[in-house]
Design a protein that fits this description.
The protein is an alpha/beta fold. Helix content is 53%, strand content 11%. The strands form 4 sheets. A 6-stranded mixed sheet has the order 9-8-10-14-15-16, sandwiched between helices. Helix 7 runs antiparallel to helix 8. It is globular.
Length: 763
């Protein structure tokens, strides 16, 4: 049997047959083994952890059982730690069980976990190492072949995946129909990962129930007395049948299979598969032209996605693909617009952005609770209840899962009441359209973009209405890159054509976008990197038409508007931190800080070795405005690692990361980051560019001014001094616009003035 896909099923069969044929020996009195055979993984964990707590030493096979239980409950961190223990136990000589060689168990399961975690390079390397040790045509090669093939396919190497699929087919054991069935069910996910729907469908058609498997099921029923023992595995297998039918274009069969599945209460237990069933059924409804029905299925899928702070886990090694949660949001937005429900479509676009941030911060345990009464305790309770929910759900207990879902909902409501901004980081709590509209000023328009694939939607929101336009999202990233590259030249007219093209693409087709003097933009995807101020209608830049403000999501504004900065001092200036290497010195930044000091004489200036991270975090709650003129680094593959480089102090290296900001508190009306690339962040699949700007907003700043690219010293100093001069008498958005227009007149090329953007509150 293919251990890759059905390790748990294999263990249950072996245990059941051992109990039936071997009598009531020691195994039958091993509760953890019995729990494992029944799929009650929460009980396996409770029992074995308690046994170890009493000093009992576990055998390799019992450690294997514990690792499997952690994996099945999607506790990947504990699984990997457990697998290290298992490997150590195997290396110490405990490497067989009932005559079975278990030397490769730890390595094989590790490869599966790495696939599920998306660490495809490591999974491929581990699988290849196993294959190098195993003899040709050894049955144990099937597991690393599948994990290697999945790692190739899911990372885009379809040629490599095809080679592994061919090797697996060549090893196919035809000695028994049960062996063939298990191998085919194990192989199908690889073809799904290769996006080869017809072949996946054909392979699964070979894997029908037959007399042999029916007999073995009867054996298990007789021994365990549990007729639902195969329920979860049957659901998973039937899901594969339905998904492959859909991929093969057999919509009628897929519709019938999904309707049958969704009528089975057991499908509600595994949230990861359940929401994907609903999402697929919604897509079938879209293909049928039934948009209201599609909204029904897709909204239920979204509800399940939003049940947990953690991402519900990946099961790519079992089903051959990684569930695209953001794709569900995109589908429901499109379906709602097709049904004429523009306000609801806007709300789901907002929820998509909220989900993206929750996903990123899911594993953080050091979020600052903002001092609301009981918030920290509620956060800890939420984390504990989430762990219980995942464990109980893996044990196919429908009633217990429903009870825990209800408890989670109640706890989230409690957190939203006690600490709404903290709640927004751990649960999806986007406000409705009416609340967002009510927060807009009469002279403001909110323009929110939301895209999935080639579809791009623009929502125009005012106090009076919500309207939507469908735009062309094809090749958008390339066009944004073309404008940035043209602007980066710093001279010439190469910027004009892409700036006009993007204006015609993003603004001209959107009715009402520029009707009011203030424009609040919520970007999405590559648009986070776009200097909107430099877009050109053929006669004027956008910055010449409206005052621009940006938000990571429209829902963030409700928190910013409610804040009353408690800071009493005027301005803190940190400039030219001493990083211990003259190559990193910024004399222009130091001159900039001193020039601003000349405009705001009551400001506090910290330069060189005094411009430390601890100085910023200690003084952050005391100053109304914080200005940092320092190096910034953008880390594209680790969103929370993007950082400001401040002067080291003792054991502190001076790096203030985006992740750090979620654990500290500021009380500033404005933070200006006059540094390199400080406004850039990683574009997540669903939205929020999680860079330093979003982190500073959560830390307590009401507004952030940050740059999209490095700008030379003289021009930056000119713009910044103009900004602070205007800030004394004008709202923030107006002050920045005024400074940009003054810089434009002296330095006309958009490279010098369009990099800086104001995120947060514009007034």
């Amino acid at each position: 049997m293919c251990r890759t896909q059905f390790a748990a099923m294999s263990q249950r069969l072996v245990l059941a047959l051992t109990l039936l044929l071997g009598g009531c020996g020691a195994i039958i009195y091993n509760p953890d083994m019995q729990y494992g055979a029944q799929g009650r993984y929460d009980k396996v964990i409770e029992y074995l952890e308690a046994a170890e707590g009493k000093g009992e030493k576990l055998t390799s096979m019992r450690i294997n059982t514990l690792c499997t239980a952690y994996y099945q409950t999607k506790d990947y961190e504990r699984t990997l730690v457990c697998l290290d223990r298992l490997q150590a136990s195997i290396d110490a000589g405990d490497n067989s069980w009932l005559g079975l060689d278990i030397r490769y168990n730890a390595a094989g399961m590790r490869n599966i976990v790495l696939v599920d975690l998306g660490r495809y390079g490591e999974a491929l390397a581990g699988s290849r190492a196993m294959l190098a040790q195993l003899p040709p045509r050894d049955y144990r090669r099937r597991q690393p072949i599948i994990s290697a093939g999945l790692a190739c396919a899911l990372s885009g190497d379809m040629a490599g995946a095809r080679r592994y699929a061919a090797e697996y087919e060549d090893m196919r054991d035809t000695s028994t129909s049960l062996a063939m069935q298990a191998q085919d069910v194990g192989l199908a996910p690889l073809y799904i990962a290769m996006r080869d729907g017809p072949t996946a469908y054909a392979v699964l058609r070979r894997a029908k129930d037959d007399a042999t498997s029916a007999l073995l099921r009867g054996v298990v029923y007789a021994v365990s007395g549990d007729k639902d023992i195969f329920g979860g595995l049957d659901i998973q297998r039937e899901f594969l049948f339905a998904r492959t039918a859909l991929l093969a274009g057999k919509n009628d069969e897929a519709r019938e299979r999904y309707d049958k599945l969704l009528g089975n209460p057991l499908c509600e237990v595994d949230g990861y598969i359940h929401w994907q069933m609903l999402a697929d059924r919604g897509r079938i409804a879209v293909a049928d032209g039934q948009h209201e029905a599609a909204v029904g299925y897709l909204s239920r899928a979204v509800e399940i996605i939003e049940t947990q702070r953690r991402t519900i886990g990946s099961e790519a090694s079992k089903i051959g693909f990684v569930g695209d949660k953001q794709g569900v949001y995109g589908d429901i937005v499109a379906s709602l617009l097709a049904a004429g429900r523009q306000d609801k479509a806007f709300e789901y676009a907002e929820r998509a952005k909220a989900r993206a941030l929750v996903d990123l911060l899911a594993e953080r345990g050091d979020l600052a609770p903002q001092d609301q009464a009981g918030a920290a305790e509620t956060l800890a309770q939420l984390a504990g209840l989430e762990r219980q929910y995942v464990r109980r759900s893996a044990s196919a207990d429908v009633g217990e899962s429903a009870r825990l879902r209800s408890a989670l909902s109640g706890l989230r409501r409690d957190m939203d009441r006690k600490a709404p901004e903290l709640a927004s980081l751990v649960t999806v709590s986007a406000p409705g359209a009416p609340e967002i509209q009510a927060g807009l000023a009469p002279d403001e328009t909110l323009l929110e973009y939301y895209g999935q694939g080639d579809a791009l939607f623009a929502f125009v929101v005012t106090r009076e209405s919500v309207r939507a336009a469908r735009l062309d999202g094809r090749g958008l990233e390339a066009e944004v890159r073309a404008l940035r590259e043209a602007v980066a030249q710093g001279s010439g007219e190469a910027w004009r054509q892409p700036a006009r093209r993007l204006y015609d693409r993003l603004l001209a087709p959107v009715p009402g976008a520029l009707d009011k003097p203030r424009l609040v933009i919520v970007s999405h995807g590559p648009l986070h990197y776009l200097p909107f101020a430099a877009l050109h209608d053929g006669s004027r830049f956008l910055a010449e038409r409206v005052a621009l403000t940006f938000l990571p999501s429209a829902g963030v504004r409700r928190f910013l508007a409610a804040r009353q900065p408690a800071a009493t001092r005027s301005l803190l200036l940190l400039g030219n931190p001493d990083l211990g290497d003259k190559a990193f010195d910024l004399p222009g930044a130091q001159a900039e800080a001193r020039a601003i000091k000349g405009i705001w004489p009551d400001s506090t200036v910290l330069l060189r070795k005094a411009a430390t991270k601890s100085a910023l975090t200690r003084a952050g709650g005391l100053f109304r405005v914080i200005h940092v003129a320092a190096h910034g680094e953008f880390v594209s593959d680790q969103p929370l690692a993007s950082r400001l480089l401040l002067a080291p102090e003792g054991a502190d290296d001076g790096r203030l990361t985006a992740g750090d900001l979620y654990g500290i508190r500021l009380s500033a009306d404005l933070v200006t980051l006059s540094a390199c690339e400080t406004g850039m962040g990683a574009v997540l699949s669903g939205d929020d560019v999680v860079g330093l700007t979003r982190g500073f907003l959560y830390a307590g700043a009401n507004s952030i001014v940050a740059s999209l690219w490095p700008v030379s010293d003289a021009e930056t100093q000119f713009l910044m001094t103009g900004f602070y001069r205007s800030l004394k008498t004008q709202p923030k958005a107006d002050a920045l616009r005024q400074a940009q227009l003054e810089t434009l007149r002296r330095y006309p090329h958009p490279f010098y003035w369009s990099a800086f953007q104001l995120t947060g509150m514009g007034r």
